[in-house]
Amino acid sequence: MTDNALETTAPLTLLGLGAMGTALAQAWLAAGHDLTVWNRTRSRTEPLVAAGAKPAATAAEAVAANRLVVLCLLDDTSIDETLAGVDLAGKDLVNLTTSTPAQARARAEWAAARGARFLDGGIMAVPPMIGVPESGAYVFYSGAGELFAAHARTLAVPAGTKFVGEDPGFAALHDVALLSAMTGMFAGVAHAFALIREEDIAPKEFAPLLAEWLGAMTFSVHKAADQLQSGEYAKEVVSNLAMQVAGNATLLRTADEQGVSPELLTPYMELMERRLAAGHGDEDTTGVVDLLRR
Ligand code: FVH
């Protein structure tokens, strides 16, 4: 078995054929890869076998088939259940199962103890984006750089790749940080739609305004990063905290007038008020990051 950096259609094994695993499998098959598949519920392999995949009767058989073994299972526990007792010596494991950073680091040690090389991945896409280059889909990878390089060509087939470092926890950390920011954004979107919901404003007419506004505000991400790195939170402030906290009263009063619960907004507003009370009214909201540290 050799590294497959120069092979355009290297053989590989995929364990887990849920919505995401199936999309990954379809992309590798479409690109001409020799793909061995296994899934706990065997019926899920059938459409892929019809498309050219090789079925394995057991996870152990699937792992034995190829050096490169990709995991796309539900969670960390399902990896333990799937790979219990399976010989991993000499294998290159790439785990695309969503994990926490600590789980990814522990999994890297677990793999090393079994004689396998390990790379963790965090998928920044939903299944329909996989295998569609223009979708913007990509996967964060972290772990052994040489392992990423060895399989870079194969890993780039279903989605773009971003290698974020040798610490095996970094892919999961990047993944979860982006997902956490998305969750906050979804909370804001839900609140905005709730405000207009009972009025004669069509959500479909409001949506482009909302999307455009959120896009216009993304400059603040870069500004916060600049302030965090320099430690100068009062540098190039556009909308100072004192003004923003005063403005929060209008947001809360409007919620009340519209009969909308403020519960998605108030935790963040309370942090802004704490920062203001500590004497940082001349800053932006970057100081909230410090308040979140436990
Ligand atoms: N789908 C998405 O939108 C997101 C996008 C970002 C990344 N996530 C993560 O990808 C992992 C897999 O997600 P999925 O969408 O494929 O999930 P399901 O369709 O629910 O399929 C789950 C597969 O895991 C198998 N499985 C579950 N438990 C076990 C177990 N104990 N032992 C062996 N396999 C197990 C399941 O098998 P089966 O139910 O068909 O028998 C599926 O193959 C995930 O980490 C997302 O967070 C997806």
Describe this structure in words.
It is a single chain. The chain has 294 residues and is an alpha/beta fold. The chain is built from twelve helices and eight strands. Strands 3-2-1-4-5-6-7-8 form an eight-stranded mixed beta sheet, sandwiched between helices. α6 links the parallel β7 and β8. Ligand FVH binds next to α1 and α4. The site of ligand FVH has 22 residues, from α1 and α4.
Please name the defining characteristics of this protein.
8-stranded mixed beta sheet, Rossmann fold, 294 residues, N-(1-d-carboxylethyl)-l-norvaline Dehydrogenase, domain 2, alpha/beta, binds ligand FVH, 2 domains, 8 strands
Report the uncertain regions. none
Please give the largest β-sheet.
8 strands, mixed
CATH architecture of the largest domain: 3-Layer(aba) Sandwich
* Number of extended strands: 8
- List SSEs in N-to-C order: EHEHEHEHEHEEHEHHHHHH
Just give the CATH class of the largest domain. Alpha Beta
Structural class: alpha/beta
Q: Can you give the mean pLDDT?
A: 96
Give the bound compounds.
ligand FVH
Q: How many separate domains make up the residues?
A: 2
Task: Provide a short characterization of the protein structure.
This protein has helices spanning 19-30, 46-50, 59-65, 76-83, 101-113, 145-155, 170-196, 203-216, 219-230, 241-257, 266-277, 288-292, and strands at residues 12-15, 35-38, 54-55, 68-71, 92-95, 117-124, 138-143, 160-163.
